[in-house]
User: What shape does this take?
Amino acid sequence: MDFSLSRDEELFRESIRSFLSKRLSPIWESIDENHLIPTELIRDFGSQGLLGIPIPEEYGGQGGSFTLSVIAAEEVAYHDPSMATAVYTLLNNAWPYILYMYGSEDVKGEILPAVSSGRGFFGIASTEPQGGSDVGAFKTSAVKEGDKYKVYGEKLYVSGVREAMEQLDLGGWLLIARTGTMDERHRGLSTFALIGKRNGMRVENLKYSLLNTIGRHGISTAILTLEGVEVPRSHLVGSEGRGFYIAMEGFNIARPMVAAANIGAARWALEEAIKWSKERVLFDRPISSFQGVSFPLAEISVEIEATRLLIYKAAWLADRIYVKKEPGLKPADLAYYAAAAKMKAVETAFKTFELAMRTLGGISYVKETGLHRGLLGMLSYMVGAEGAHNVMKYITARELIGKDYVK
Ligand SMILES: Cc1cc2nc3c(=O)[nH]c(=O)nc-3n(C[C@H](O)[C@H](O)[C@H](O)COP(=O)(O)OP(=O)(O)OC[C@H]3O[C@@H](n4cnc5c(N)ncnc54)[C@H](O)[C@@H]3O)c2cc1C
Assistant: This one.
């Protein structure tokens, strides 16, 4: 048992902390205010080794690990608690990995180096208007025509659409679409590397409209409408009918990073609350001297620490499965820890922001403190992003009790 990071992991954390405190902290509020992550910042994230972390170097990635990806997500969210850049970072560490695992050489060669260098974006297009949690009922269809598929349907709340379609040279998503019948439910689904834009040119028959979200404005959320988008056969990821399982594996990989981002933002909020509790003097003493103020701060710090241990355990397990390829472990073994980490981290982050706002009192309701930006950013994960909260509970219950006993 060893609770410390390795020397290389410590060095990575130190180097990105130094980079993020100079490049991200000073502009995080303007990113939220201007609804834009500057393109040169995305490029710098690539040069700093923050994107494509677990992708092997031969595919242009950083040749790192899931532990490093989790460190990156936590640190980026700490320096931008609105979550926008953390979401950008974690999407481009998790979903390209699925291409590395199951994509054709064409797809890997085109997308992975672009994502890792900050010239391209690759996210997930799963959710449909009739409900994101019921994946087996998805209707978007991919109809085979010769050496390509034509895709028809609608994907909702897709992150990174403006970045993919307007900002960067290349953009795309892991698309879940039906190649079988509706009766086949989740067994009729397949995954594709859907490219929305390449070499600066948008693909035909793919429309989008940006949604007016309440938070994490720096990264866009949009509706994608596919009106016969042509996807080459080589862009099928895995084989037909395996899409549900491949996408679920992607969510398992992404969730520890999502959890780490929530904890990074929570750590920032706690520090803001502690700072204020020492500076704010009432009844001739700092309010931190009142146990009614200090005890909740102590309690939430313990929750953050416990949650972080759960997250790092999930990342450690992911490394054993994917990086070290330890015999006896399989991808599905990650499901419990990935869902548990996300469930716990979202709850802890929400409680931390609420406590931070109560600790600051009235001033927290004034926009200058920035706490509202963090609260609204993390709420995206409370209401659904990367899987609804009840779905996290369902997965942990299913893994705990057994799938024959939990519906
Ligand atoms: C800001 C943001 C960004 C997002 N980015 C992306 C993205 O990039 N790509 C993408 O594909 N999707 C994205 N999503 C969508 C997200 O994945 C969905 O919100 C999520 O899967 C839930 O789907 P839904 O919102 O349709 O809720 P529904 O599935 O309709 O669920 C509604 C409620 O019912 C509950 N519920 C559902 N099933 C059960 C059950 N079996 N038992 C008990 N309770 C249940 C849920 O917990 C929830 O409370 C994003 C969402 C947000 C808010």
User: Anything to note?
Assistant: DSSP finds twelve helices and eleven strands in the chain.
